[in-house]
Design brief:
With 328 residues, this protein is of the alpha/beta class. The chain folds into two domains: 204 residues, Rossmann fold (3-Layer(aba) Sandwich), CATH 3.40.50; 85 residues, UDP-galactose 4-epimerase, domain 1 (Alpha-Beta Complex). It contains eleven helices and 14 strands. The strands form four sheets. The protein has a seven-stranded parallel sheet, with helices on both faces. The chain has a three-stranded mixed sheet with strand order 12-9-14. A two-stranded parallel sheet has the order 7-10. The chain is globular. The two termini are 35 Å apart.
């Protein structure tokens, strides 16, 4: 199988590239390295069947050539992190929408299958105990740039499913819930590597808001396993699937757990949202997936606990510090 991974130098994409190579696939990664890192691919750069293209999903020539070669496309390239989204809303929207449009158009021309990575952010301000794929999307008002990411990814989903309906493109949409693990950077606001990096350095752990908002954290290995299972199931095409853990934890408790497992003496400080991001910033109080649809089709369940994830992130950052590659 010939597999194209857009955004494959990123955190999730690099783990996916390794998994596909282990399965005997030929793998091409297309990444502009704006947020991805070539260091993430150091384990596979010289592997037989691997190719890296330094290019953009917004480039017709880059995407056209890569899609013409591929049987299966994992479209992961997107704007990354709340910090980047709030600061650069135009870049966020253009990267997400134009890039996805390019990938779908050329995939349809060459009859390649596409798995589109979307996000739990599309559920917006919903207050459901657990989000289901059939729930309405309650995205906030456009004057708050924080919602530009959710709106653009929701449009990506509409576009992918429209291509499935009108062009018979074989597409799968997944909504990822806080995927974490080794190689993830805290540079763009990702909370877990940011906390672990601060704890390792003995700095205060900066909790935004009151810290009682809760999240579920899924190990990247579990997420990649779900992606692969879905591509093996014909019944997944034309559908949307949540992927994430159901082990919820408040951000305050996450900070305490990180301090304990890292063995740090760091303190916890609370920073108002308007100081961390922008005036009027809105956050989701709870974000838990209902994964029954994914489990019914594939049998998938997450395997790694949050404690194990934190230890792996700690060890990865310590190793990166030793080798000069840490970014949290």
């Amino acid at each position: 199988m010939k597999v194209l991974i857009t955004g494959g130098a990123g955190f999730i994409g690099s783990h996916l590239a390794e998994a596909m190579l282990d399965r005997g696939a030929q793998v091409t990664v297309l990444d502009d390295l704006s947020t991805g890192r070539i260091e993430n691919l150091r384990h596979v750069l010289d592997a037989p069947g691997f190719r890296f293209i330094h290019g953009s999903v917004e480039s017709d020539s880059d995407v056209g050539a890569a899609c013409a070669w591929a049987d299966l496309i994992f479209h992961l390239a997107a704007a990354v992190g709340v910090d980047l989204v709030v600061r650069y809303p135009v870049r966020t929207i253009e990267t997400n929408v134009h890039g996805t449009e390019n990938v779908l158009r050329y995939a349809a021309l060459h009859d390649a299958r596409v798995l589109l990575a979307s996000t739990s952010e599309v559920y917006g301000r919903s207050t459901a105990a657990a989000f289901r794929e059939t729930d309405d999307l309650l995205i906030g008002r456009p004057t708050l740039y924080r919602w530009s990411y959710a709106a653009s990814k929701a449009l990506d989903e509409y576009l992918a499913l429209a291509y499935h309906k009108e062009k018979r493109l074989r597409t799968i949409v997944v909504r990822l819930f806080n995927t974490v693990g080794p190689r993830q950077t805290g540079q763009y606001g990702m909370v877990l590597p940011r906390f672990v990096g601060q704890a390792l350095r003995g700095e205060p752990l900066r909790v935004f808001g009151d810290g009682e908002q809760s999240r579920c954290f899924c190990h990247v290995g579990d997420t990649v396993r779900a992606l692969l299972l879905l591509t093996e199931r014909p019944g997944a095409e034309g559908e949307i699937f949540n992927i994430g853990s159901r082990e919820a934890i408040s951000i305050n408790d996450l900070a305490r757990k990180v301090i304990e497992l890292v063995g740090s003496r760091s303190e916890i400080v609370h920073i108002p949202y308007e100081e961390a991001y922008e005036p009027g910033f809105e956050d989701m109080r709870r974000r838990m997936p209902d994964t029954s649809k994914l489990q019914a089709l594939t049998g998938w369940r997450p395997e790694k606990s949050l404690d194990r994830i934190i230890v792996e992130v700690r060890d990865d950052l310590v190793s990166g510090a030793v080798h000069g590659t840490a970014t949290a």
